[in-house]
Amino acid sequence: MACMKLGSKSEMFNHYGQSWLCSYGLPCDVIIEIGDISFYLHKFPLISRSKVLVDLMKELSSDNEKSVLELHDLPGGAKAFLLVAKFCYGVKIELTAMNVVGLRCAAEYLEMSENYGEGNLIMQTENFLNHVFGYWADTLKALKTCEEVLPYAEELHITSRCIHSLVLKVADQSCVNLPVSSQSVALSSEDAEVWNGISLTPKTSGEDSWFEDVSSLSLPLYKRFMQGASARHMKPKRIAGSLVHYAKKHIPLLGSQPSSQNGNSSAFKSSLSTPSEADQRNLIEEIVELMPNEKGTAPTKFLLACLRTAMALYASSSCCASLEKRIGAQLDEADVEDLLIPNIGYSMETLHDIDCVQRMLDHFMIVEHDVADSASNDIDEERRIVGGSQPHSPMAKVANLIDCYLAEVAPDVNVKLSNFHSLAAVIPDHARTLDDGIYRAIDIYIKNHSWLTDSEKEQICRLVNCQKLSLEASTHAAQNERLPLRVVVQVLFFEQLKLRTSVAGWFFSSDNVENSQNLNANLALVRNDGNTPPPNPVLAFDNMKGRVAELEKECLSMKQDLEKMMKSKLSWNMIFKKLGCKFVPKPSNATKVSKPCGKARISPASTAQVEEKAMEVK
Fold first, then answer.
1. Which of 71, 19, 76, 77 is nearest to 46 (CA)?
2. What b/e sequence results for 202-240 when a residue is b if at least 16 CB atoms lie within 10 Å of its CB, and e otherwise?
3. How is domain 3-132 classified at the CATH fold level?
4. R_g of the chain, CA atoms, integer Å
5. What is the pTM (predicted TM-score) of this model?
6. From CA 34, how far away is CA 44, in angstroms rounded?
7. What tens digit of pLDDT does each residue of 555-612 get?
8. Nearest to 481 by CA among 552, 578, 568, 596
9. Is residue 188 scored above 50 in pLDDT?
10. Where are the domains of the chain?
11. What pLDDT score does 598 carry?
């Protein structure tokens, strides 16, 4: 730590209760009162250094044996005046980063300039301050002491100079003449957590080692520091990192309070006590205001924690809206657990704040739409198709996130159908590679809202694309008694359509393979010079045999599903009669779908016919 020694005389000040006496060899002729402390001193050493004291002495009456002066408004108080008095008497004193600011302000207040003695206190403290500004740790300590004499420190620009020095060090570390003191980074032996001789405390290093140091500043000083860092065009990622660290340290709901803090003076540890709710509310509003606007600068998990805390502390609506907007821009990085924000509104109808998630999702869609508009129509269409099929695209991640969120809030009986439907409907169809997630959420919702009408169930089931259900989900839906019959028929129809498509694909593939093999065999016979062996038809037949076997397994599985459905529900004639549909048998094996008079006429190929065709191929 930087220090500077002044004076040469030995100590001559003695402390008695609330008084300080100077053993100068002569009886004291002036009493200086500052607060509850009294200083019994001599006029001549004081007036030889201070213009203010000279003027005050002239105003005193000479009738009294001892003159009494009151300096209650002296910056730095009795602590600073004791050093001033020692300096006037030539007693040895030591300037440090912890006392130089108060002493500089007191010297300015008493007008201790060069006109009242060469090498006076104003010049000495000013020179030492310039020396302090060359070190990170000392500048930080000096800045903290500015709060004790803030009005005077502002007039002398000490606060701004300290902040400028700190900002310059973290924003431009290439300045070798402004080194960052390692003392601020390393922890003392008392602060470090050690087990069996091994340090368990992680050490901060590199360009982010200053996060912990500046987090010990008060909010007004820290805010000015961050504003200065932003003006110096510091990277938004580093600014956000410091804000996150500061918020977690001073807001209990965001992170636990650290067990130890940097600094040697206990005067600043009192500020680290748990702040009131009003202080926390003000702090989180300031943190959000200082946060850079660039996407991805702050972790989504932290922003969601800030939003929960802001709502719990009843922060301003602008603060909450700003957090929702930031989260929405990077919603694809969120977790389901973090989205389960408790509903603390006045109505509190639902357990979780679904409206908040709706607003964040809407903003995400706006951002995605803006990204799409920046490209041409062809590129945008390709991005939508390819991006929708990729499970790691932002839209696909958000689709899966919302489906999982809906499944979590679905058991809440107070969740309205309109809220559930509007949240699920925002996700476009191309964003889901499979609709198993939304089907699961809808099934849970219908199960816990048994009073829904058939029309309401059909309305919510329209969110599911039956063609994009997996085999497991389709099997579950076909046996789900809670679903409307129309939905069950749709599921079975598309499963049968998939089966027919698969069968037709196998037959088409087998015909092509057989024709290709015959053609290759004929060409080989024509061009065979006696050395090239003809193609082996046995291998092709074995491959076809394996494919037909797989096809038989699919047919058998579908047949078993249909039999289960027949046992658990009404007969097929009753089902289609209720839905306004009826079977029309056809002599051919092909399936035709027509819609006369607005009603579906379905003539599916029977499973027996499929099996018979498969046996013929085999």
1. 71
2. eebeeeebbbbbbbbbebebbbbbbebbeeeebebebbb
3. Potassium Channel Kv1.1; Chain A (3.30.710)
4. 41
5. 0.71
6. 19
7. 677 667 666 665 554 454 554 454 454 444 444 443 333 333 333 333 444 444 444 4
8. 568
9. no
10. 3-132, 485-516+541-617
11. 38
